[in-house]
């Protein structure tokens, strides 16, 4: 018995395949971001952020396309709708495989994004501590003014702290 694939099924599968590919690309950008954060190459981050934003927009468009396709076929336009579609079309193994790939990749992307958030927090804490050290902390001696000139010794002397 031959299995006939309908045009909506083909379009749906193509959308899922494109979505899986885009999530894989997003993971690649998250990995680059993680490398930049962990090696201190923060000058690379703005370009990565721009690329991530563009890819996020592409992912949103593909999700909207997927949901529209589901709605046109009488399914809920959400994750439950995809599960229902797959349950109603068990012969469409390629679609199910693409959907499972998307779920797996999305989970990986979420974890990478979480780790990158932790790296960003660590970098921010490091920068705050470095800035505090450069500024001399709360109990700093105001030896120099904002203009870089030494302040008059009448305000505070180093020996006053001893």
Describe the structure.
This protein has 162 residues and is mostly helical. It has a single domain (7-133), classed as FlgN-like (Methane Monooxygenase Hydroxylase, Chain G, domain 1). Helices cover 70% and strands 0% of the residues. The protein is built from 4 helices and no strands. It has helices at residues 7-39, 45-72, 79-88, 93-135. The radius of gyration is 27 Å and the shape is elongated. 14% of the residues are buried. The model has no long low-confidence stretch (mean pLDDT 87).
What are the segments in which pLDDT stays under 50 over at least 5 consecutive residues? none
**Number of helical stretches of at least 4 residues:** 4
Compute the separation of the termini in Å: 94 Å
What is the share of helical residues?
Answer: over 70%
Q: Whole-number radius of gyration?
A: 27 Å
CATH class: Mainly Alpha
Topology pattern, helix = H, strand = E: HHHH
The assigned structural class equals: mainly alpha
What is the 3D shape? elongated
* Mean pLDDT across all amino acids: 87
Annotated CATH architecture: Up-down Bundle
Instruction: Tell me the count of domains.
Output: 1
The proportion of strand residues reads: under 5%
Largest sheet: none
**Within the CATH hierarchy, at the fold level, what is the topology?**
Methane Monooxygenase Hydroxylase, Chain G, domain 1
Identify the CATH homologous superfamily.
Answer: FlgN-like
- The count of DSSP E runs of length 2 or more, i.e. the number of strands, is 0
């Amino acid at each position: 018995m031959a299995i006939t694939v309908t045009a909506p099924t083909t379009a749906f599968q193509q959308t899922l395949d494109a979505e899986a590919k885009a999530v894989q690309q997003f993971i690649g950008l998250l990995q680059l971001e993680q490398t930049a954060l962990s090696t201190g190459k923060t000058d690379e981050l703005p370009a990565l952020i721009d690329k991530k934003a563009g890819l996020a927009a592409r992912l949103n468009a593909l999700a909207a396309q997927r949901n529209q396709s589901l709605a046109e076929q009488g399914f809920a336009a959400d994750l439950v709708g995809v599960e229902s579609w797959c349950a109603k079309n068990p012969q469409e193994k390629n679609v199910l495989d693409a959907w499972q790939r998307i779920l797996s990749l999305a989970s990986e992307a979420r974890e990478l994004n979480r780790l990158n958030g932790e790296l960003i927090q660590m970098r921010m804490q490091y920068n705050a501590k470095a800035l505090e050290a450069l500024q001399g902390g709360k109990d700093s001696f105001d030896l120099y003014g904002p203009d870089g000139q030494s302040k008059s010794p009448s305000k505070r002397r180093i020996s006053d702290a001893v």
